[in-house]
Batch of 2 targets.
Target 1
Amino acid sequence: MADARGKYADLIDEQTWAFIERSAQSYPDDMHNLSLPQQREAYAEMCQTFAQDLPEGLLYEDEQLNQNDHTVPLRHYRMADRKAKAHLIYYHGGGFILGNLDSHHDICADLCAQTGFDVTAVEYRLAPEHPHPAPFNDAMAAAIYVGKSTDLPIVLSGDSAGGTLSATVIGALRGNTAKATEQVAGQVLVYPSLGLNTNSGSFVEHAYAPMLTIDDMQAYYLAYSGGSHEPNDATFLPLLDKDFSDIPPTVVISAQCDPLCDDGRLYCEQINSAGGQAVWFNETGLPHAYLRARHSVQRAEASFTRIVQAIQHLGAQQWPY
């Protein structure tokens, strides 16, 4: 932490350092060296540390989406006093090995309250017990199910690994006959992992940034892949795709002090080069996982407002960028 603080002294402000140091009390930098149960326990503790009260008027209920050999837990949110104009599907982060409906409960609640949209959170199966394609299959099944359940425009979103899943589902829905395909109005990705090039750009510049390091990412990729993956499998990581045409409008919001920063830029460049609509925001001085700082750090609060507005714009089928 001391080395990182020196390197990032001119980028990260004191509010953000306070958030980083508070996070490290339950989830330190070397978590990838601990056992999986220890990591999950520490992650749950960190999430609880930053948990916020739920907004007034919020209603939510859980549902089990039945698949052939398992169920996918879903949590549906809505505001009691508002009729939603769109439906948001949200995939939680956690490196494909951590997280669940509870870990992102207050984040999804805030998204529901601030967008006014209905929200469905998805608890996909986790690696390493369930490596790729299990998380993708659950994410895809949930998107198709929501499409059958509503006639509203659908926006997909997620943070970190959840952003990965959103983008893989968006790519796979092209050409799919599911009703959700016609309803998807766009996606908003928050500091997503989208590619495998860990030898250049932000993966080198921010290899040992606070909150996420290249060592963490390599451990996550290994668990998620199960040790191997097809070289052009876009359901594994979106930047492995060879065709970026017909991707719905896309907003990617990255953190400047994050190994994953360049993934968002590269993904948007590919979409725009293929004739689509994509815009990339790189949030100055923020680290990975800053969504939990949205009520305590001004930069994170401003970014969360940008995320909410992006979801609202896409849900209204607007492109103001």
Target 2
Amino acid sequence: MFANTDWYLYNFRLAQARALCERGDELVLLSPDGSYGPRMCALGFRWLPFPLARRSLNPLAGIQTVFRLLRLYRQEKPDLVHHFTVKCVLYGSLASHLLGIRSIVNSVTGLGYVFMAEGGARRWLRGLIEFSYRLLLRHTWVIFQNPDDRAVFLKSRLAVPGRSALIRGSGVDIQRFFPRPEPEGLPLVILPARLLWDKGVGEFVAAARSLQTRGVRARFALVGDSDDQNPASVHPSQLQAWEKEAVIEWWGWKDNMDEVYAQSSIVCLPSYREGLPKTLIEAAACGRPIVTSDVPGCREVVRHGENGLLVPVRDSGALAEALFDLLKNPTLRSEMGIHSRAIAEKEFSVELVISQTFALYQACINERN
């Protein structure tokens, strides 16, 4: 299992890794070095650090990465490889094809910054990535997290219909994330995510400022850190300025997200586009109402008017109105929270996602044999 950060493997694929090991498979976790690699080793997993520059566009660096990957795959002799995120999908698929590895699974966990960026500056890069997908994904199995992304890939012939599967997200542990009563006191609205502009951080702050100007009594918190490897990252100085202005609280990264959701009244993610956000299915499992954008990925979790509210993307005014409607109505928040929990249990449990993924693995092995 190869991803572009050890944080991704730890936060999104740990349950799957544990299930693989428990059934007797030999597993290697591969990612760039970071603080979460040693944590995975301490849990008994075999994790290997692998250099990968996430932002580099240097073709020579890319060639060197492929050669390192060829050497590692030749040494490990995997029966099946599973790649996550764009560079890992492209480099991993190329190395696998060159070595004759036939069981290749690639997860498209969202279209990413290049597909969402506007203007011509990124057009050539998007074209290059689309060409690479078209060339390298043809003889692999591709997992999509929402039907919109799948439709984009199939329409552009970036993936093959008979080799594509829809598995919605990485699942949520519904035993760890469970409903608790909303705390007393001022309602708390949280945005839990990497702090990127395309997560709707600017719109969230603008909505918070608007509501405070109108005299709405509530707290607003950003829960997460900026990501200096992502071009859309919100700079820490901007976060500090907002906090100094007292429009929002900035909590930073939290490992105990189940406790964070328990403190909240509403969970908000006004993102521009997602694969399928884990924060929303965690919030749903915790029985919280959700306000999010009516975009691919987000609308997979929220049924408008049932367990939350969908708002137009990039519209801070509509976001403020949706938050206002829930902040003034605790009964509605409670009813929506009940529906959120039911949806999480039925559609997004980690056991369901693992079962679907393992079924795809078996299809790959059967096809190879």
